[in-house]
């Protein structure tokens, strides 16, 4: 369950931090399993120091290294925790702190400052966000805008006030312009309105990039952002209405199988998506934190050739969960953006040898996790 392939090379010494000589993402050991307990409060993970604490990158001279992960209890946060604790992703002397909303409501500035004061991080991976699937976005665009604008400003500005030089935040491929040419790349984020279904979330996310540029130009900070495509994996939100598409479909398929009913898929099944496994994203975000030098964001995605239709994903889920019933596509429901094909050329130029987990394997591990953790899964 949730085992990963070994990366071919061990983590490099921290001194080799240059985009032209990139290191491998976090080392991954085989046969590790993801804890089935859902963490509700802050997790602190300290890797014992064997030698004087190494620095995360050439520009940060603070010691010790304390990495605060906001949104540490979510899909991406749990995957990073897994890589750090189970797959050799942490370096000697590092302390990793994983926050959930129960530790601090980051829409509130006072709570944000208090949690930063408590942990005094030297680095931040900022994942916390109000997130959801297409239909929740369509219902609550205003709330997505307000919550995310506040969370992002509170986190980034508190990091700046505390003299933290390194923050990696998370954008999303669904924030790109609706009317665009394909493949989309990192230079195109602000080139036109996003799809109307999720404009609140998209504009709020785009402002992270604006803010990162501001901290760079006014204060020389190294705040950057990653742009994942559609992430899935253990600990995702499997809710049938509000979850991300793949996980919602896993849950729907399981229910249809148990009840012996047809599988109702919302939309035509035609939209195309680049699905990326949460464990792969986790390894890449850790690499970005350590090695990626630019302020401008980087797309973290499987290649354009790996884009699949929702229909293909549904068929793969049905095969994986051994669902043999009828599949019905409800075309009265919205399809959302028909495609948002993103280029991973920039990532590939820096990390040409990164191996993504094959989709069938990642899907199987996610389905297994869902079935084994049905009681605690968000659904
Ligand atoms: N999943 C994707 O396909 C995808 C794709 C592209 C980008 N991203 C981005 O990746 C990041 C992580 O997404 P995810 O999929 O891991 O989401 P997730 O599983 O829903 O997790 C969201 C995390 O944010 C925390 N959070 C939400 N509201 C908060 C608040 N007001 N104060 C403090 N913490 C709060 C949640 O804490 P609780 O657990 O306590 O609620 C949880 O830890 C987000 O920035 C998202 O925009 C995700």
UniProtKB/TrEMBL annotation:
The record's section on SUPFAM superfamilies has:
NAD(P)-binding Rossmann-fold domains (SSF51735)
Q: What class of enzyme is it?
A: oxidoreductase
Q: Per the UniProt record, which EC number(s) apply here?
A: 1.1.1.271
What spans are recorded as compositionally biased (Polar residues)? Answer: 53-64
Q: What pathway does the annotation place this protein in?
A: Nucleotide-sugar biosynthesis; GDP-L-fucose biosynthesis via de novo pathway; GDP-L-fucose from GDP-alpha-D-mannose: step 2/2
Concerning Gene3D superfamilies, the annotation shows: NAD(P)-binding Rossmann-like Domain (3.40.50.720), UDP-galactose 4-epimerase, domain 1 (3.90.25.10)
Tell me which family the UniProt entry assigns to this protein. Answer: Belongs to the NAD(P)-dependent epimerase/dehydratase family. Fucose synthase subfamily.
In its UniProt record, a GO molecular function of this protein is:
GDP-L-fucose synthase activity
Q: What are the start and end residues of every segment in region (Disordered)?
A: 1-65
Domain NAD-dependent epimerase/dehydratase, first and last residues per copy: 67-303
Pfam families per the UniProt record, alphabetical = Epimerase
Query: HAMAP family annotated for this entry?
Result: GDP_fucose_synth
Q: What's the protein called, per UniProt?
A: GDP-L-fucose synthase
Q: Where is the composition biased (Low complexity)?
A: 15-40
What is the role of the protein in this entry? Catalyzes the two-step NADP-dependent conversion of GDP-4-dehydro-6-deoxy-D-mannose to GDP-fucose, involving an epimerase and a reductase reaction.
Gene that this polypeptide is encoded by: GFUS
């Amino acid at each position: 369950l949730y085992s990963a392939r070994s990366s071919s090379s061990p983590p490099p010494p921290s001194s080799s931090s240059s985009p032209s000589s990139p290191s491998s993402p976090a080392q991954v050991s085989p046969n590790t399993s993801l804890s089935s307990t859902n963490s509700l409060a802050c997790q602190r993970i300290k890797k014992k120091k064997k030698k004087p604490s190494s620095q995360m990158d050439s520009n940060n001279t603070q010691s010790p290294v304390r990495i605060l992960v906001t949104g540490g209890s979510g899909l991406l946060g749990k995957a990073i925790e897994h890589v750090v604790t189970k797959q050799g992703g942490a370096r000697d002397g590092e302390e990793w702190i994983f926050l959930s909303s129960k530790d601090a409501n980051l829409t509130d500035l006072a709570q944000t400052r208090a949690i930063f004061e408590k942990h005094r991080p030297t680095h931040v991976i900022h994942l916390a966000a109000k997130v959801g699937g297409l239909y929740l976005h369509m219902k609550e665009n205003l709330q997505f805008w307000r919550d995310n604008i506040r969370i992002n400003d509170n986190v980034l500005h508190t990091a700046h006030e505390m003299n933290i030089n390194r923050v990696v935040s998370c954008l999303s491929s669904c924030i790109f312009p609706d009317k665009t040419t394909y493949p989309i790349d990192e230079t195109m984020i602000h080139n036109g309105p996003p799809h109307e279904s999720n404009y609140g979330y998209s504009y709020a996310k785009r402002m992270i990039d604006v803010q990162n540029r501001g901290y760079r130009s006014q204060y020389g900070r190294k705040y950057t952002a990653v742009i994942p495509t559609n992430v899935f994996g253990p600990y995702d939100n499997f809710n049938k209405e509000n979850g991300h598409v793949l996980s919602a479909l896993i849950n729907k398929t399981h229910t249809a199988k148990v009840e012996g009913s047809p599988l109702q898929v919302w939309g035509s099944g035609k939209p195309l998506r680049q699905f990326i496994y949460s464990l792969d994203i986790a390894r890449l975000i850790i690499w970005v934190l350590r090695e990626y030098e630019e302020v401008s964001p980087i797309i973290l995605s499987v290649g354009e050739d790996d884009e699949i239709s929702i229909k293909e994903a549904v068929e793969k889920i049905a095969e994986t969960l051994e669902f043999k019933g009828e599949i019905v596509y409800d075309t009265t429901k919205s399809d959302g953006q028909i495609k948002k094909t993103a280029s991973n050329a920039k990532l590939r130029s820096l990390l040409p040898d990164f191996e993504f987990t094959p989709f069938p394997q990642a899907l199987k591990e996610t389905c297994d996790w869902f079935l084994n953790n049905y009681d605690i899964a968000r659904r």
